[in-house]
Design a protein that fits this description.
The complex is a heterodimer of chains A (84) and B (84). Chain A has 3 helices and no strands. Chain A has 84 residues and is an all-alpha fold. Classes of the chains: A mainly alpha (84), B mainly alpha (84).
Chain lengths: 84, 84
């Protein structure tokens, strides 16, 4: 196993962990933060696949705008998800 | 294994350690700081990887990423501080 593939496996493991966190958190602010971390790691994965333009778009939209919009939406509604 | 890939692998291990705090963190402030640490580590990994791939254009991705990625953390901090 080359070190490149090993590093890519590490990033993909982080993507899976943060993706599961987004679904399982009941605190919506924590879920938004985990979504931001997911977006960061996704940009790194695009970068590893040698697509720098896609990585720039993902960094700008995903890391910056999406988290901010989620926070504004949480402020307008409720912070904690209710048990059904 | 080239020394640069070794550096990249160590930094990726540090990302996984920060992700432990993202999972366990009792409050949202812990999670925000963990996400910001992941942010900085991703920028460092991108710069080191541009040395590995021998591509100057990849440094531009790291610059754009560093300029845009703080916005999400800024919004979360303002939400936690009650200003938003």
């Amino acid at each position: 196993m080359t070190p490149y593939l090993f590093f890519q496996g590490l990033v993909l493991a982080g993507l899976i962990v943060s993706g599961i966190l987004v679904v399982t958190f009941k605190d919506l602010l924590a879920a938004a933060i985990a979504s931001g971390a997911f977006s960061l790691l996704l940009a790194l994965e695009f970068y590893l696949l040698q697509a720098p333009d896609v990585a720039i778009a993902e960094a700008g939209i995903g890391a910056g705008l999406t988290t901010a919009i989620f926070i504004i939406a949480i402020r307008g509604t409720k912070r904690y998800e209710e048990e059904e | 294994m080239s020394p640069w890939m070794f550096v990249v692998t160590v930094l990726a291990g540090l990302i996984l350690l920060a992700m432990v705090r993202l999972i366990r963190g009792p409050t949202s402030a812990n999670r925000v700081v963990a996400m910001d640490a992941i942010n900085t580590l991703v920028v460092a990994i991108m710069i080191v990887l541009s040395v590995v791939f021998k591509q100057v254009i990849f440094i531009d991705v790291a610059i754009v990423y560093a300029l845009l990625s703080y916005v999400g953390v800024l919004f979360i901090a303002k939400y936690l501080g009650g200003e938003l």
